[in-house]
Design brief:
Strand content: under 5%
Distance between the termini: 65 Å
Order of helices and strands: HHH
Radius of gyration: 21 Å
Number of strands: 0
Helix content: over 70%
């Protein structure tokens, strides 16, 4: 039977760097959501300043998409924290097991939102 290998300082530091990378990713997602919401407001204000009706068809979906992105960014921070704590526990117990659930879920969601935004933009043209 092989003795358990406990995580050393480099493993814990790598876990912390990964957590901070997830936090940066979450901030980027939230910032993108903020930009999506504010851009629709900017287009509406610009068309009013020019004295024209809305230059872009507006279904109100950009606000929903932006708010959803901000919520997903916030959820990413929470899930990444739980992932960080779980890996820390595994390293201390010597029972680390790789998991890519958070990465797969986030990738799938961002892909879905990207497709929806492309469809929305194509409808606006």
């Amino acid at each position: 039977m092989e003795p358990k290998k406990y995580g050393g300082p480099t493993d814990h530091l790598a876990n912390e760097r990964t957590f901070l990378a997830w936090v940066r990713t979450a901030i980027g997602i939230m910032a993108f959501g903020f930009v999506v919401v504010k851009f629709s407001l900017f287009v509406k204000q610009l068309s009013l300043m020019l004295g024209k009706e809305y230059a872009v068809k507006s279904h109100g979906l950009s606000a929903i998409a932006g708010i959803t992105l901000v919520a997903v960014g916030a959820a990413t921070v929470i899930f990444s924290y739980f992932r960080y704590r779980n890996i820390e526990k595994q390293l201390n117990e010597g029972s680390y097991g790789h998991s890519s659930g958070l990465l797969t879920t986030l990738t799938g969601f961002i892909f879905l939102v990207s497709i929806l935004l492309i469809v929305y933009l194509l409808e606006s043209v």
